[in-house]
Amino acid sequence: MSREKDQEYFCEGVAEEIINALTRVKRLQVASRTSAFGLKATPLSNRDIGRKLRVRHLLEGSVRKSGDRLRITVEMTNDEGGFHLWSERFDRQMEDIFAIQDEIAANVARNLELILGPGAQRAMQKAQPSDIQAYDFYLRGRRYFYQYRRKGMEYALQMFSRAIEIDPRYALAYAGIADCSCYLLL
């Protein structure tokens, strides 16, 4: 929904980070990234999507980016009737994206009435890159990686390398390079 129409990689990256945070919560089953993203452009109803993914609740949202400002709107619905269970808007500076992702995951868990002990809360948190530009290159790299084509892998390697140039301690960018290298060796 951003004015800049090339932001799909960023939106998918935000969604993927939230999925990853939620998968760390015990007793919560989260549909895989591939399954969930595979249905994003389909005209299916919430009920049909819920059945297809075998989930009771759906989390959907939008990301709007204007300059260094973000507005992320997230809503949870049930799959049976598509009724809203929870909705919230997060307006932040781009530099707060990691805090927003963690906050969204915590709100989702809380609204699913999960009891999070200290261990589960720590499990949802992970080391974040120190630079937002490095994170942006990382997300671009992931976007190319998930194309599963040789040319996409080569672009992904470039993006991950640029992330590392900016933040040499950014472990996920190194993991991205490893993923691409494994794919290219096959």
What features would you describe in this structure?
It is a single chain. The protein has 186 residues and is α+β, with helices and mostly antiparallel strands. The protein contains eight helices and three strands, in the order H-H-H-E-E-E-H-H-H-H-H. It has helices spanning 8-23, 33-37, 46-53, 97-111, 118-124, 132-145, 150-166, 171-185; strands at 57-66, 69-78, 84-93. Strands 1-2-3 form a three-stranded antiparallel sheet. Strand 2 (69-78) and strand 3 (84-93) form a beta hairpin. Helix 1 crosses helix 4 (97-111). The model is unreliable at 114-121 (pLDDT under 50).
Q: Main traits of this protein?
A:
8 helices; single chain; 2 domains; globular; 52% helix; Rossmann fold; alpha+beta; 186 residues; three-stranded antiparallel β-sheet
